[in-house]
Amino acid sequence: MRIDIITCLPKLLESPFSHSILQRAQDKGLVEVVVHDLRQWATNKQKQLDDYAYGGGAGMVMMIEPIDRCISELKKDREYDEVIYMTPDGERLEQGIANQLSLKKNIIILCGHYKGVDERVREAFVTREISIGDYVLSGGELAAAVLSDAIIRLIPGVLSDETSALTDSFQDNLLAPPVYTRPAEYKGMKVPEVLLSGHQQKIEDWRAQKSIERTKDRRPDLLEE
């Protein structure tokens, strides 16, 4: 998989892709993440990317021309399955969306900034709009990193145990059950006996029941879907 991220603040994305699982995925050649500085496609000496909104009002708007030039150049080298715009008014990111996108080959993620992008960008180039929650960030960079993380960890071979992602919260519209590790007792707090029993079927039954109980308590809306 290849993920191309278009941003006016590329340094914000250096750290997320330089550590842990995301770094190892790239080192293994399972995913290629390329961050593009949109200013390379600016049209004037000032490397301007934004301008005042027609009709007035507070805030600046990202201009269409640099974005068009960038996306058009990327598309000369490969076909893209999706051009995703990170925006608060997009569809809310859920596990099912991450599952779908993990099967794609090439994705562009466009990071908004200021008051957002010229609406014509959304009409002409964007194929999908995604939000990571009902709140507003200073720009789409952190949201792009969140989306990328959610996608990349699902690619076969990224996690050392490929079945791990299949038992995460939300995969079956359920929250994950409680988990424990050594020591078996700490300051009077004990690990449930069933997890120490070695009886795998009983353990799986216990986990399934706890998963349902936790979901009912914390996210009952998931059980209604």
UniProtKB/TrEMBL annotation:
Its EC number is 2.1.1.228. Residues 1-224 form the tRNA methyltransferase TRMD/TRM10-type domain. The keyword NADP does not apply. It is found in: Cytoplasm. The keyword Oxidoreductase does not apply. S-adenosyl-L-methionine binds at G112, I132, G133, D134, Y135, V136, L137. InterPro entries: Alpha/beta_knot_MTases (IPR029028), tRNA_m1G_MeTrfase_C_sf (IPR023148), tRNA_m1G_MeTrfase_TrmD (IPR002649), tRNA_m1G_MTases_N (IPR029026), tRNA_MeTrfase_TRMD/TRM10 (IPR016009). GO terms for biological process: tRNA N1-guanine methylation. Specifically methylates guanosine-37 in various tRNAs. Belongs to the RNA methyltransferase TrmD family. Homodimer. This is tRNA (guanine-N(1)-)-methyltransferase. It comes from Roseivirga spongicola.
